[in-house]
Amino acid sequence: MAQPLTPLSKLPNFDPERVPVIGVDHHMPAVPAERLSAQALRQRFAQPPAWQPEVVRERKFAQREPALASVLVGIVMRDTPTLLLTQRTAHLSTHSGQIAFPGGKVDPEDADAAATALREAQEEVGLEPRHVEVLGALSEYVTGTSFIVTPIVALVDPLHALHPNPQEVAAAFEVPLSYLMDPRHHRRHALEAEGVRREWFSMPYQDGDEQRFIWGATAGMLRNFYRFLMA
């Protein structure tokens, strides 16, 4: 049996922000602004198009049983819609310090993937379900740690209030959805390590004085969301 790969974040001296960019899709169009309105998003999920996700499965680097998980792709319906993201605390066992959607493993009590996403968002950032309108799900995304993740896309009332759990979340912030749905901001990376080529997207965003480096699974799911909206 092949030995499991080392997670990228655990490779010696690995810094995702220093890995060279091998390509940016300048030739691909951005999602038109009219497709990012609340009504357009509702309609897209009510009558979803035929589409194919671009990123489905990461290179496996953990010998563990697969586990179901769910994340909330929460679109805050401001005048210019934004996406709610979190930065994980540095002490967490997986994806520590990385930018992620609110979410986590499915509990036996959860009725479905949407229930998991709503529960986790409330536990992590204090987002109350009454402020969330679930639209639907994107295709599953399998992480290198064997999590089978269902992204749940939802509209979030801009009047919500957040109370991040300091044990899990170092920061909660918003990024304009139009920025993330523009391939000019989708950077491709590749790295040869342990005899294997690993590839991923990044979508860095300058948030005031703070650069939010979105990469890995979060960026992969956002790329799939782009494909869904452009299908």
Account of the protein in words:
A hairpin with a 5-residue loop joins strand 2 and strand 3 (82-88). Helices cover 18% and strands 31% of the residues. The protein has one domain (22-230): Nucleoside Triphosphate Pyrophosphohydrolase (Alpha-Beta Complex), CATH 3.90.79.10. The longest helix is centred in the last third of the chain and has 15 residues, at 216-230. The model has no long low-confidence stretch (mean pLDDT 91). The strands form 3 sheets. Strands 2, 3, 4, 5, 6, 7, 8 and 9 form an 8-stranded mixed beta sheet that branches. The chain has a 3-stranded antiparallel beta sheet with strand order 1-10-11. With 231 residues, the protein is α+β, with helices and mostly antiparallel strands. It has helices at 38-46, 113-125, 177-180, 216-230, and strands spanning 21-24, 67-76, 82-88, 99-100, 103-105, 132-137, 141-142, 147-156, 169-176, 187-193, 196-202, 205-207, 210-212. The relative contact order is 0.24.
What is the 3D form? globular
> Which percent range describes the beta-strand content?
25-35%
Distance between the termini: 39 Å
- Helical segment tally? 4
- Could you estimate the helical fraction of the residues in percent? 10-25%
Topology, pairings included?
Blueprint: E1 21-24, H1 38-46, E2 67-76, E3 82-88, E4 99-100, E5 103-105, H2 113-125, E6 132-137, E7 141-142, E8 147-156, E9 169-176, H3 177-180, E10 187-193, E11 196-202, E12 205-207, E13 210-212, H4 216-230
Parallel strand pairs: 2-8
Antiparallel strand pairs: 1-10, 2-3, 2-5, 3-4, 3-9, 6-8, 7-8, 10-11, 12-13
